[in-house]
Write a structure and sequence with these properties.
Blueprint (H helix, E strand, L loop, with lengths): L13 H15 L4 H25 L2 H7 L3 H21 L10 H10 L7 H9 L4 H27 L10 H31 L1 H26 L7 H28 L4 H11 L4 H12 L3 H26 L25
Helix pairs in contact: 1-9, 2-8, 2-9, 4-7, 4-10, 4-11, 5-13, 6-7, 6-11, 6-13, 7-8, 7-11, 9-12, 10-11, 10-13, 12-13
Length: about 350
C-alpha cells in the first residue's frame, strides 16, 4: 500500500499545529492568579529577547545594499501599511452580517502588522524571483512596523472598546519592549553576530518557544475573561471567507500593480510575496502588548490568515518557477534560498 502524504502544493505549517495545540492547552488549563502573573512576566521577557535576536540577525550591510532598490521597498511598504489598512477599513461594512465587532477589530489589526521575512524569501527563491530584494523588503517592513503598527493601532483602534484600553502609553510600552531590544541586538551584533549565525537552528527553537508562550498567555487571559463566548462556527466561517477575498485582492494588486509600475519579473515576484503577506512572528508579540486580555481574539484572524497565505503562495510560487526566465537577468547568487531567521513569519 502507498503511504498517504499531504500534497506539497497545499502545505500545513507544523508550527500552526503547535500554535493550535497551545490554544487548546490554554482553553483547558488557563493560567490564573499567581500563575497568570508568572506567565505574563515570562512572556514579556520572551518578547524582548525575541526582538533582541531579530536585531542581532539583521545584517546592516545587506540592509544598506538593499537601499539601492528603493522603489521596490517603497512599493512593498505602501502595500503593507497603506493598501492593506484601507482594505481593512473597507471591511467595516461587513459588520455585523459577516463579522462581529471583536473579529473585525482582529481583522483590522491583521492589516496593520508588518510583512513576513522567512516565508517571503522562501517563496521568492522557489519562484526564481529577486531574493536579495525579498530579504531587504521583509527586514525593512519588520523594522518599520515596530513603530508604525502601534501608531496605526492607536489611530484606527484606539477609540474602540475592544482594544483593551489602548492608549498613547501603549506606544511607549511597545517601543521599550520591542524597539529598544531590537536596537540593542543591532549594537551587540558586532560581538555576537557570528555566534547567532552558528546557532541559528537552536535559537530558532527559542524564538518559536517564546511565541508559544505569548500565545498561551494571551489565550489564557481570553478564557478567564470569557471572551471566547463571542465566537461561533458561523462567524469563523465568515471570517475565513473575508480573509480569502482579502488575500486574493492583495495578490492581484501586488502582481498587476508592480507590472503597471514597470518592474521586471523577478522584482514583481518579490513584491507579490512580500507585499501580500503578514507576519505572525511580529504580530503575536505586538498584540500581547497592545491588547492585553483581548489579544486572543485580536490574533485569531492573523493565525488563520498566516496558514491561508502559506497554502496559496506555495501554489503560486510553484507555478511561477515554471515561467520562462531571461538567462541574462538574474539575482545575486549569494542570497539564493537564504533565510534570515527561523521564526514562522
Amino acid at each position: 500500500m502507498k503511504r498517504l502524504t499531504w500534497p506539497s502544493r497545499m502545505p500545513v505549517d507544523p508550527y500552526i499545529l503547535l500554535l493550535l495545540g497551545t490554544v487548546g492547552i490554554a482553553a483547558l488549563f488557563p493560567a490564573r492568579g499567581t500563575g497568570a502573573d508568572v506567565a505574563s512576566g515570562a512572556a514579556t521577557a520572551a518578547i524582548a529577547f525575541l526582538f533582541f535576536l531579530y536585531g542581532a540577525r539583521l545584517s546592516t550591510r545587506e540592509a544598506l545594499d538593499g537601499l539601492r532598490h528603493w522603489r521596490l521597498h517603497v512599493t512593498v511598504l505602501v502595500c503593507t501599511f497603506v493598501v492593506f489598512p484601507l482594505l481593512g477599513l473597507a471591511a467595516r461594512g461587513l459588520v455585523p452580517v459577516f463579522l462581529t465587532e471583536p473579529l473585525y477589530q482582529g481583522l483590522l489589526f491583521l492589516t496593520l502588522v508588518p510583512s513576513t521575512i522567512q516565508s517571503s524569501i522562501a517563496f521568492t527563491s522557489m519562484a526564481r524571483g529577486n531574493v536579495p530584494a525579498a530579504i531587504c523588503a521583509g527586514s525593512f517592513s519588520s523594522l518599520v512596523g515596530i513603530v508604525v503598527t502601534p501608531l496605526l493601532v492607536a489611530a484606527l483602534l484606539g477609540g474602540s472598546g475592544g482594544s483593551g484600553g489602548f492608549s498613547a502609553g501603549s506606544v511607549v510600552e511597545i517601543v521599550l519592549q520591542l524597539l529598544v531590544p531590537f536596537v540593542a541586538g543591532q549594537v551587540a551584533r558586532r560581538w555576537i553576530g557570528a555566534f547567532v549565525a552558528r546557532h541559528r537552528k537552536v535559537l530558532g527553537l527559542v524564538d518559536r518557544g517564546s511565541i508559544l508562550l505569548v500565545v498561551y498567555t494571551a489565550f489564557s487571559e481570553g478564557m478567564v475573561q470569557g471572551i471566547w463566548q463571542q465566537v461561533s462556527p458561523v462567524r469563523l466561517g465568515g471570517l475565513l471567507a473575508v480573509e480569502a477575498v482579502l488575500l486574493a485582492v492583495m495578490l492581484a494588486l501586488t502582481w498587476y500593480g508592480a507590472k503597471a509600475l514597470r518592474f521586471g519579473r523577478e522584482d514583481r515576484i518579490a513584491i507579490q510575496f512580500a507585499g501580500s503577506k503578514k507576519s505572525l512572528a511580529s504580530g503575536l508579540p505586538m498584540a500581547s502588548v497592545l491588547f492585553g486580555a483581548h489579544a486572543s481574539l485580536a490574533v485569531l484572524p492573523l493565525m488563520l490568515f498566516h496558514q491561508m497565505q502559506l497554502m496559496v503562495c506555495a501554489v503560486i510560487a510553484k507555478r511561477r518557477s515554471r515561467d520562462p526566465v531571461d538567462p541574462h537577468v538574474g539575482t545575486d547568487a549569494r542570497y539564493g534560498g537564504a533565510v534570515t531567521d527561523n521564526v514562522p513569519s
